Every structure is written in structure tokens, then in C-alpha cells.
Amino acid sequence: MHVLYADIPMKKILVTGSIAYDILLSYDGSFADALKGVDIEKLSVSFFSPHYARHHGGTGSNIAWNLRLLNQSPLLVGTVGSDGGEYTALMSERGIDVSQVEILWDHATATAIIGTDSEERQIAFFHPGADTHGHWPDLLDLREEIACGLVSARDAGLMMQAVHWLRNAKLPFIFDPGQQVLALSKDELLASMRASAGMIMNEYEWSLLTEKTGLPEEELTRTVPFLIVTRGEYGFSFFADSEMSVVLACPADRVVNPTGAGDALRAGILTGLAAGWPLLDGARLGASLASFVVEQEGTLLDSIDVEEVWERARRTYGQAPPSLQ
After folding, report:
1. Contact yes or no for 239/230 (Cβ under 8 A)
2. Using CA atoms in the order 204, 209, 214, 220, what is the torsion angle rounded to 10 degrees?
């Protein structure tokens, strides 16, 4: 299981989302403490960051990268700018299908600037760049090669085109709107949820969704077959069949930066969905992979021994996920 990039005949997992460069900054203190008593109407704050790093990132590319680490066959759909050629070449070298990644030479690739404090709170700015001007590709000829998909945060119009295509193609997909909840209408959100096989989001995004739709949590959880709400170091809540269970996070040996952990979780869930596993098995696999991601700076693991990922899941949850062989 240590061979990571072997050519294994399997159906593709379609992933659409942002492809971006991440600028990671750290603050040795608490954002919450620094903002106490601040007049929000006259907000003007500055945080000194002793650490700077620039990495490859973006939700779509992060998830596709993690799927490849798990020996899956991701098909990435997204848009980059004139500075994105090096990134797409790197992903192609790793076995990610980037044939449907659009390059717009008159624009820059999306960029995220993420500040993290000493208690793992984050403040982020995101410039969408070329993605705002992207187009949804013609995937008709690839329909029979795709097992399932995931629609994650990128340009809101392109997200809805992805939902429509996957629904019309009768392919199961996970709806992962992220903070694009703010850009989508109530009707778009509810229609996407109903068309999906399930949804995943973090606590803050879940609160935005309940506020945007104006519906009680109990009703929203019945709108999708399953819902996962991630809660950082506390794991995640899993809603299915009108029941809720809490799954603990998979402990990391050390935490360097939490950015990218959620994308690793999603890769595990997609791996399980494509393989037909029980949902919790895929989520536990993703939680285990996420525990390795937080042990480094940057969102992309250069390599991983997948036997160790399975073993860490076994130690945490009492049993290993099913075999992919």
C-alpha cells in the first residue's frame, strides 16, 4: 500500500473547486483578545506575523491531491491564471487529471491569505482571480468514467453549473459550499442540498447556512441524506436518518498548522463514497489523513504511507477502514 501513484484502472472522482496559492501567516497571540473592546465601526487593526510561507492550495486542488495520496483517480475541474502553469504541471506529475483545468492568460490564479493565531483561530482573505471568469467544461464524453463528485467553493455560478451537470448525469455528489453560502441564494442552497448525496461544512459555515435559509437545524438536517459538520480539534458531528452522532478527531503527533485538514477529511469521505463504504468509514479515513496534514506547514503532503493512515484510524476508532484492494 506504500505505492502512491501507480496506474490503477478505476473510475474517476470529479472534484470542482478553487485552485489557489496560499499565503500563510501566523500571529503569536489571540485574535479574540486583540479585538476585545474594539469599536467595530472604526475597526483598524494590525497583527504582526513572524512567519510567512507561500504554498499551493485551493479547496479543489487540495482535495484532488489528497485523493491521489489515497490512490484514487481525481478529475479536477477549475480555472487558473497565467501563473498557474507550474501548479497544474505539478498536479499532473502526481497523477491528477488536469485536462479539464482551464487557463485564462489575462488573469492571475486565485490567492488565499490566511492568518492563524496561537489558538488556531483564523482570519482569511480570498481573491478569486481567474476563477471568476471561468467556464464549465463539456464533460459528456467523460460521464461513464466518473463514479461520483464533489462541488466545493469556487465561483458561485460555476458551482451551480456543476450541481446541475452532476444531477442531470445522475451521479452522486457531495455539496461543499464553504463560505460561498453567502453568495448562493436560499433556493440555490436548498436545491443543491436536495440533489446531493450529502453535505459537509464547518461550524461557522453551518451557522451561515441556517441564517441564510431561515430554517431550523432539525429541518435542514432532514434535507440531505447526510450532513457532516466539522468542529476542528473536537472532530465532527454526523447527521443521518434523523440521528446525530459525534466522531472524535484523529489525534496528530503534533499540530503545526490546521489549514487543509478539512480537505483531507473530504478526500476520505469521497474515497468511501466511490468504494461504496458505510459513510462513517470514509469519514474516519479522512480524519486520519487530516491528522497527518496538520503535522506540517502547508496543505499538501508530499507523500504518505497509506498503511500508517489506516493504522492511525484503527488505533483511534477501534477498527481500520475497509481495504481498497
Report:
1. no
2. -110
pLDDT of 325 reads: 65
> Phi-psi region for residue 48, left (φ > 0), alpha (ψ -120 to 50) or beta?
beta
The stretch 134-158 carries a mean pLDDT of: 96
- Helices and strands: H and E segment counts in the chain: 10, 13
Look at residue 137 and give its three-state secondary structure.
Answer: coil
112 contacts: CB under 8 Å, gap ≥ 6:
18, 20, 21, 22, 23, 57, 58, 124, 125, 126, 127
The predicted-structure confidence for 208-234, as pLDDT tens digits, reads as follows 999 999 999 999 999 999 999 999 889
Count CB-CB contacts under 10 A for residue 223.
16
Residue 116, amino acid: T
pLDDT digits (tens, 9 = 90+) for 66-102: 999 999 999 999 999 999 999 999 999 999 999 999 9
Instruction: Tell me how far apart the alpha carbons of residues 244 and 227 are, in angstroms, rounded to a whole number.
Output: 9
- Going by pLDDT thresholds of 50, 70 and 90, the confidence category of residue 299 is confident
Q: Distance between CA 203 and CA 7 in Å, rounded?
A: 37
> Which of 105, 112, 114 is CA-nearest to residue 126?
112
